[in-house]
Design goal:
Elements lengths: L3 E4 L3 H12 L4 E4 L3 H9 L8 E3 L3 H6 L6 E4 L5 H10 L8 E4 L5 H12 L4 E8 L1 H7 L2 E5 L2 H14 L2 E2 L2 E2 L1 E5 L3 H29 L4 H11 L7 H11 L9 H4 L9 H11 L5 H13 L2 H10 L12 H30 L5 H7 L10 H11 L13 H21 L4 H13 L6 H12 L22
Parallel strand pairs: 1-2, 1-4, 2-3, 4-5, 5-6, 7-10
Antiparallel strand pairs: 6-7, 8-9
This protein binds NADPH dihydro-nicotinamide-adenine-dinucleotide phosphate.
The site of NADPH dihydro-nicotinamide-adenine-dinucleotide phosphate has 23 residues, from α1, α4 and α6.
Amino acid sequence: MARIGVTGLGTMGAALALNMADRGFDVAVHNRTEAVVDEFMEGTGSLSDRFTPVKSLEALVDALTPPRAVLIMVKAGDPVDAVIDALVPLLDKGDLIIDAGNADFNDTRRRTARVTDEGIGFLGMGVSGGEEGARHGPSIMVGGTEDLYRPVQDIIEAIAARYQDDPCAAWLGPDGAGHFVKTVHNGIEYADMQFIAEVFGILNASGRSYADQADLFAEWNGGPLQSYLIEITAEILRARDSETGAPVLDVIVDKAGQKGTGRWTVIEALKLGQSATAIEAAVAARSWSAEADARAKAEETYPTGTTRMSHVLDGDLEKALLAARMIGYGQGFALLSAASRHFDWSLDLARIAEIWRAGCIIRSSLLDDISSAARDGLPHDQLILAPGIAPRLADAVEGLRRVVLASMEEGVPVPGLAAALSYFDTYRRARGTTNMIQAQRDFFGRHGFERRDRDGTGFHGPWAESD
Ligand code: NDP
């Protein structure tokens, strides 16, 4: 009998199942298209004895030791509901379903309620690290009741990445908490990728060769920017297309895909009265990238000419990336705090930063500092106000400012970097300019305002007197 079942042997499900077997667990494996199970088994090599291949969900359930644990790793959305609908009648009370795909946490909350009603447990589990991570150690963010997590904790911790022996897996809170944290993780990832892509654009506009840029990113990876995304950027800049021998970046269409997690982050931020503008800029840039024909027409209408940037220092670019990264993480953590309060999740922000230090796409040396800052408590829930972060951001942000200014002068697009800078400049003003907005609201809609010189609400401007 197998300890756990996996249904969905696509990229991620297959890698997770192999990872579990590698760690000594017996796994029953199933896939909707039966032939995929055979293909999977052909690639299991010396691990094949650990697997029980099955061709139906009934057989999957029969192959498991009760109380059963079934991990679903199928395409996000309706397929998850379809698999749950098929599984629930086959399971007994006390069994457990784990959805390890990228679910919208609202769906996870709904599914948790639906499955719990049937006496079956449900964990919504975010897995980050792509195929490689899933195979050799991802970062794992679990939501559901803690009681449900305990029986599978050993498996989840065993397959997770390790940061100095600390497993990058944790139970984070009830129902949708795990998928919410994974969503925000992806939002931060969107922003970080966008910042890097913009710096790539600036370096291109400065006439720097890919080889030169690769060296620069590799050098940055040895400093405060050390991270997986900076590391792979250097590798990508060096890579050549195997068919044509051209730099691989030159053969790739500038159209970025998205599966929804960035958009969900922005939507949830707005719902919670937050605004993750750097992440929003990254989502927008991917959306605009899909409009190739309109962009070609726009370039014809408003020609850019040949852009030559010459006055951006490498040191400023490094600082710009660091400042923007801090702000991107800051917006993500502010969102996590807001969600934790709203849903009463008691999210441990320090632990979240810790489990992102290995295995996941946004792993970076900055997360060590972020976890320490969160452990000490974030002033006003703001990472950018943490004593361990603020002096570094204050220093780096001036580089960000010079880079954004120089780019804007030349018309080189920097929507993510500019959004990060604008957020910083807006946030650090104790007195902003929304008094004007409040006056306008009162002028046309008698919405009232608060006065600086006395308590109370509902004051009106002189325009109200003429009514
Ligand atoms: P793949 O496209 O490689 O595999 C999809 C799997 O879903 C296949 O096993 C497919 O079965 C199954 N499936 C699709 N529709 C149905 C259905 N209606 N009923 C039953 N099974 C169905 O996807 P991935 O492995 O890349 O992604 C799986 C999940 O993991 C997604 O939620 C994704 O967002 C998430 N994820 C992916 C990451 C990545 O880097 N790829 C990283 C982190 C999370 P069949 O063979 O029959 O078509």
